[in-house]
């Protein structure tokens, strides 16, 4: 593997970002990233929308022997001077996926539960310690939505329960429930990498393979859950309301997150047909919504 890389970067408009990304990929880019070049955060797209910033910074990474100047010149010609802030630089190789590890420390959620990076020791060996290596999948416990769900799980009596974790990511919520006493869990995600991360974390925590079932959406078993957890986004949560309600047993519990404060009313309304909703829990700008399914 090369120890060095060539990085080529431009700033472009929202309308042209996709075309520029395609040109970088056609030129042989190993990776292309799109970032905001100003300070205009995007929290969640509308359904069917691909969100981009008005001024988008696009960075392409190439092997060290790649002619970055020739590539940049060719792209500038095709865009007829409409690009800005051309930048080409040589980068030293770095393990980008692991660079954050030195800043990720054990975290406690409630009274019983700790999330412990797999490369550190548990601060309290007698606690319920979930050894986690999130890999490429979302779900480390550091985000408020995950933290809200973990604190909720720590407060519950999950003994003997079946858990459905819809949008399982790294598997942190399903595995936490099993370590806290749940009988079985099913993790569903749209991303195969999430299932790989979930399987790896389950093995790391000595979860019996018969206790945790994993699959893509089409693989969902249809088994109704005592507790359904969905930490995704508000738009999909509204769309999935009938399905997630049907997936939850009567008298069962539902936990929903990935939702901003201003979106909470819409989620409560979508699920109130089937569930008695409890007061909304808030952390920073994010919320957790939970309730019990009516008979």
Entry keywords:
295 residues, alpha/beta, 8-stranded mixed sheet
Question: Would you spell out the secondary-structure blueprint of this structure?
Answer:
Blueprint: E1 4-13, H1 14-26, E2 31-36, E3 55-63, H2 68-78, E4 84-92, E5 107-109, E6 113-117, E7 128-132, H3 144-155, E8 162-166, H4 172-179, E9 184-188, H5 192-204, E10 212-215, E11 225-231, H6 234-246, E12 248-260, H7 264-271, E13 275-277, E14 281-283, E15 286-293
Parallel strand pairs: 6-7, 8-9, 8-11, 9-10, 11-12
Antiparallel strand pairs: 1-3, 1-4, 2-3, 5-6, 12-15, 13-15, 14-15
Helix pairs in contact: 6-7
Question: Main β-sheet: number of strands, strand sense, barrel status?
Answer: 8 strands, mixed
**Care to count the β-strands?**
15
Total of helices: 7
Oligomeric description of these chains: single chain
In sequence order, what are the helices and strands, one letter per element?
A: EHEEHEEEEHEHEHEEHEHEEE
The proportion of residues in beta strands is 25-35%
**Distance between the first and last residues' Cα:** 59 Å
Summing up helix and strand content along with how strands pair, one would put the structural category as alpha/beta
User: Which stretches are poorly predicted, pLDDT < 50 over at least 5 residues?
Assistant: 39-52
Q: What's the mean pLDDT score?
A: 88
Radius of gyration in whole Å, from Cα? 22 Å
How much helical structure, as a percent, in the residues? 25-40%
The backbone outline, from C-alpha atoms, is globular
């Amino acid at each position: 593997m090369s120890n060095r890389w060539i990085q080529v970067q431009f700033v472009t408009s929202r309308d042209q970002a996709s075309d520029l990304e395609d040109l970088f990929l056609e030129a042989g880019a190993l990776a292309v990233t799109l970032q905001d070049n100003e300070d205009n955060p995007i929290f969640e797209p509308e359904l069917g929308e691909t969100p981009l910033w008005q001024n988008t910074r696009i960075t392409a990474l190439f092997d060290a022997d790649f002619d970055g100047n020739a590539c940049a010149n060719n792209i500038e010609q095709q865009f007829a001077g409409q690009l800005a802030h051309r930048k080409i630089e040589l980068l030293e190789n770095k393990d980008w996926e692991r660079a954050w590890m030195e800043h990720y420390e054990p975290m406690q959620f409630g009274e019983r539960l700790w999330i412990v990076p797999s490369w550190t020791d548990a601060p309290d060996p007698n606690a319920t310690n979930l050894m986690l290596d999130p890999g490429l999948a979302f779900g480390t416990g550091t985000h408020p939505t995950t933290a809200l769900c973990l604190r909720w799980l720590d407060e519950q009596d999950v003994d003997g329960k079946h858990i459905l974790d819809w949008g399982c990511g790294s598997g942190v919520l399903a595995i936490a429930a099993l370590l806290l006493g749940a009988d079985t869990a099913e993790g569903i995600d749209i991303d195969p990498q999430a299932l790989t991360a979930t399987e790896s974390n389950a093995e790391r925590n000595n979860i019996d393979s018969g206790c945790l079932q994993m699959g893509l959406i089409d693989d969902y078993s249809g088994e109704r859950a005592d507790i359904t957890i969905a930490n995704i986004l508000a738009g999909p949560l509204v769309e999935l309301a009938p399905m997630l309600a049907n997936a939850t047993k009567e008298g069962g519990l539902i936990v929903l997150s990935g939702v901003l404060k201003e979106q909470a009313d819409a989620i409560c309304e979508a699920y109130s047909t089937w569930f008695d909703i409890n007061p909304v829990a808030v952390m920073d700008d994010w919320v957790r919504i939970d309730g019990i399914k009516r008979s």
